[in-house]
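dumping this here so i dont lose it
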């Protein structure tokens, strides 16, 4: 079992680090927030002095941080002091360009690296059922696989540096667009006097079928576990959906990819956030579409 450094012990990183401890690894963690540190300690994580001190002692360092600037800042501290042959795995959701810079920082100092963002949310992090989408060299991926398997149930190698982030933002752009589409259909059904259950029964077995409908239905009733049944408590908060849609737009502009529906989805989620609903589940956008304030 390895000595694993874990930097960023927040809503996702805390339970992910706890699963590494459960798998028998020695986990040395770090965060800036005392509450995150206390929760990690209670889960069996040892707390290190600084990211650099952790990197100097660990064979593998996992980061789970808010954004690209945090990852590049931490990599600036850990890459120069990482042990020879160390493996750096960044699981944060960040822009593709920063992910590629982080790979370059690692390579400059002889460390192997992987961008490995996740889907599955806080529930998946706690249950150890996350999906990891990884970008980087095949060797780094094979070394990371058993570690990622302790935190997730599906691990996909998507390609070279940044490919994991590319997969993540493409997937979440589909999700944002499809959720708005499903919500619009329910709002139209309501105006036409069609019941939620009738639309669900038809569309869940017809060509309108998609995850936003069948697993995460934005109206209460048809899918009892969906956030609509608990007043749209997340789940996956609208603020995080907006973050991912903005990353997709940035990447699309940089790459010259036409994404008109992605742009419209980003605008609608920006509106929802501006209305103070960033902490609401992203399926709660149906209330904004209905004009409910
Ligand atoms: P969070 O804000 O709960 O956790 C981030 C943690 O990083 C915080 O505890 C913060 O104190 C810490 N941090 C920031 N800068 C640091 C530094 N320099 N050194 C050490 N610690 C530092 O966020 P989260 O929900 O855990 O999300 C983490 C990442 O996972 C984000 O990139 C997010 O987009 C992604 N993500 C989140 C979800 C979700 O449902 N929450 C799902 C998929 C992906």
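and the seq i came up w/
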């Amino acid at each position: 079992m390895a000595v694993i450094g874990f930097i960023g012990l927040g809503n996702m990183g805390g339970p992910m680090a706890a699963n590494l401890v459960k798998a028998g690894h020695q986990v040395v963690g770090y965060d800036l927030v005392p509450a995150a540190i206390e929760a990690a300690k209670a889960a069996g994580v040892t707390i290190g002095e600084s990211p650099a001190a952790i990197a100097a002692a660990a064979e593998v360092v996992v980061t789970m941080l808010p954004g690209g600037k945090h990852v590049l800042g931490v990599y600036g501290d850990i890459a120069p002091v990482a042990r020879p042959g160390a493996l750096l795995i960044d699981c944060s959701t960040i822009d593709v360009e920063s992910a590629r810079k982080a790979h370059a920082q690692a390579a400059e100092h002889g460390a192997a690296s992987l961008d490995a963002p996740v889907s599955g949310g806080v529930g998946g992090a706690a249950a150890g059922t996350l999906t990891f989408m990884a970008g980087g060299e095949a060797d780094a991926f094979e070394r990371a696989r058993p570690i990622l398997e302790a935190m997730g149930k599906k691990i996909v190698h998507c390609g070279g540096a940044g490919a994991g982030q590319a997969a993540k933002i493409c997937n979440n752009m589909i999700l944002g667009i499809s959720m708005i589409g499903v919500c619009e259909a329910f709002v139209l059904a309501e105006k036409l006097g069609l019941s939620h259950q009738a639309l669900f029964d038809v569309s869940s077995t017809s060509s309108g079928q998609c995850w936003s409908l069948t697993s995460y239905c934005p109206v209460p009733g048809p899918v009892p576990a969906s956030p609509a049944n608990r007043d749209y408590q997340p789940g996956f908060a609208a603020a995080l959906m907006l973050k991912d849609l903005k990353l997709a737009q940035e990447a699309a502009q940089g790459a010259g990819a036409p994404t008109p529906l992605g742009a419209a989805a980003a605008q609608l989620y920006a509106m929802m956030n501006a209305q103070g609903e960033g902490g609401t589940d992203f399926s709660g956008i149906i209330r904004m579409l209905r004009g409910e304030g």
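The longest strand covers residues 152-159.
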